[in-house]
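Hi everyone, sorry if this is the wrong subforum. Our group has a chain we'd like a structural model of before ordering constructs, and none of us has done structure prediction before. Sequence below.
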Amino acid sequence: MKDECVDKNLFTQLDHAFIRKEPFGVVLIIGAFNYPIQLTLIPLVGAIAAGNCVILKPSEVSSHTERLLAEALPCYLDSETFAVVTAGPEETGKLLENKFDYIFFTGNNRVGKIIMTAAAKHLTPLTMELGGKSPCYVDHYCNFQNAANRIVWGKFINAGQTCISPDYVICTVETQEKLMPCLRHAIREFYGTDPKESPDFGRMVNDKHFQRVRALLKCGRVAIGGETDERDRYIAPTVMVDVKEWEPIMQEEVFGPILPIFTVKDLEEAIQFINCRERPLAAYAFSCDDKVVNCVLDSISSGGFCGNDTVTRATLISLPFGGIGLSGFGKYHGKFTFDTFTHFRGCLLRCMGLEAINKVRYPPFDDKKLGIVVSALEIKRRGMCTLL
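Answer:
Right subforum, don't worry. Here is the predicted structure as tokens:
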């Protein structure tokens, strides 16, 4: 948090130039249901570190965790500067009528637009951590079992309710044929012959989300899994093939344990398909050829990227986490969280004397004065361009 000194030009050599890191003020953090501890406490820690007061609004969908946070946090935090609000959509709308100095939201883009509309009334700055359809390209030159293990783990952890899980696989028909038995093997290895009995496989968070995801099974053809149990909100780890780009499963974020495979003729068509859609929160590429992985990295835009794995990028706090376009904006994790909740205030302290130095900037103007001012305002950095 200490002041950060910066380079100076000739005109300000005798002055003190620095960046002061100050809190925004009162911050509203709205969490999400799928990782209700992580997605509320990580931004909370950054907001506290930056010196802000915080109103924390956990997701009402994960009601048990919401109650836990509401009961536990006041035991550890100053109630005059940190408060937990339990509220549904209607109450949250009332909450958003208040003026905040910063809003941090994690959720879907539909609710994100509502929050942006409310924030616009007060010109409140925002960080929006949204979702999207994160593509996973699998190359024909690949260790298919390793790829399948990492895709299955990233897709089906938390029953697919992970914003950066691979939303769909995109590959050629030949690659699909090689990948399919490996996916089946990985699902069996991780969750057994009956995933419903596995203690490591989750459930949909509520009936509404169960019904929404189950309806996606009407798209394409189920190749693996497909079993459901409404009473238990169970949807088996499922792989779907023969899906069409206009079907709901390829139009909306799945956010459940269904992995569609969309086939294309080659890498170029895969990249074109991805680029014709909204920019996702994450993108993945699997290949034993580094040139292919780097080609995907260079050719598409996404919030983050991981080659030859899924999800693990988010565990590295030295990397920023955030979206782009419809998948959100702003970033956090590690020091990036502190930076998000910090106003970087540019400061310059000058003395009252040495007025002769200032005369070149005062009227009347001439070419000589102009030349001196331009030269004096340059900041020259070794190995870099010269900036005015």
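For your construct planning: The mean pLDDT is 94. DSSP finds twelve helices and 18 strands in the chain.
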